[in-house]
Amino acid sequence: MARPLIQLALDSLDVNQTLKLATLAAPYVDIFEIGTPCIKHNGIGLVRELRKKFPNKLILVDLKTMDAGEYEATPFYAAGADICTVLGVSGSATIAGVIKAANAHNAEVQVDLINVPDKVACARESARLGAHIIGVHTGLDAQAAGQTPFADLQAVARLNLPVRISVAGGIKQSTVQQVTRAGANIVVVGAAIYGAPSPADAAREICELASAA
Ligand SMILES: O=C([C@H](O)CO)[C@H](O)[C@H](O)COP(=O)(O)O
C-alpha cells in the first residue's frame, strides 16, 4: 500500500513563521494546509504567496465553509488552492456549492466532519454529492477535552466510499502508523511538527513512520 500523504497544518497567525515552518518541513510533507486561524488572519494573499514559493506542493485552504459555498470557495481556488474544506454541518447545498467551485478549477473538496452528529450519514451524502476527500477531524478544543479521531476514522473507513479519507486531531509519531493502518489516505499533523524542538526532524520521522506502516 502506498504511504498516506502527509499534510502539515500551518496554524500560526504569523506569516514569517508560517513560511519558515513550511520551508523547514517541505522535504517531508506533501500538502501545506493553511489552517483556519491563519487564513482568517492573513487572507487570500497567503495562498498566492505559498503557491508561488512552493509550486510543486499541494495547498489545502482550511476555509471550514459554513454557507455560500461556491461564492466563498471560488476565489481561493482561483488563487491556487488545490483543496478547500467545507463543514459537513453546513448541509448538502453548501457542500455541493464548494464541489461546483472545485470542479470548475480542476481542484478538490474536503468535507470536514468536525462536530457532525451522524458522521457516517454525512460521509455517505458527501460522497454522493461528489466530494473528493472526507476529513475525520477532532478539533483543537475537542482534543483539549480529551477526544480523539480514532473511532470515527474506523467507522468512516469501514464504509469503503469512493473518496479519500483524511484524519486530523493530535496525530503524532506514536499514532501515525495506527491511523495509516486504519485506512487514512491523508494524515494531518500540526502541533507534533510545529511544536517540536526540530520541526524538520519531526516531519521526517512522521513521514518515515507512515512509509513503514
Ligand atoms: O484544523 C485544525 C484545527 O481545527 C484548527 O483549525 C488543525 O490544523 C488540525 O487539528 C491539525 O492540528 P493538530 O491537531 O495540532 O495536529
Automatic annotation (TrEMBL):
Catalytic reaction(s) noted: D-ribulose 5-phosphate + formaldehyde = D-arabino-hex-3-ulose 6-phosphate
InterPro entries recorded: 3-hexulose-6-phosphate_synth, Aldolase_TIM, HPS/KGPDC, OMPdeCOase_dom, RibuloseP-bd_barrel
UniProt keyword annotations, A-Z: Carbohydrate metabolism, Lyase
A GO molecular-function annotation: hexulose-6-phosphate synthase activity
EC numbers, comma separated: 4.1.2.43
Domain of life: Bacteria
Pathway named in the protein's UniProt entry: One-carbon metabolism; formaldehyde assimilation via RuMP pathway; D-fructose 6-phosphate from D-ribulose 5-phosphate and formaldehyde: step 1/2
Family matches, as SMART domains: OMPdecase
CDD domains registered for this protein in UniProt: KGPDC_HPS
Signal peptide: none
Orotidine 5'-phosphate decarboxylase domain span: 5-206
NCBIfam families documented for this protein: RuMP_HxlA
PANTHER family registered for this protein in UniProt: 3-KETO-L-GULONATE-6-PHOSPHATE DECARBOXYLASE SGBH-RELATED (PTHR35039)
Family from the record: Belongs to the HPS/KGPDC family. HPS subfamily.
Protein name: 3-hexulose-6-phosphate synthase
UniProt organism field: Methylocaldum szegediense
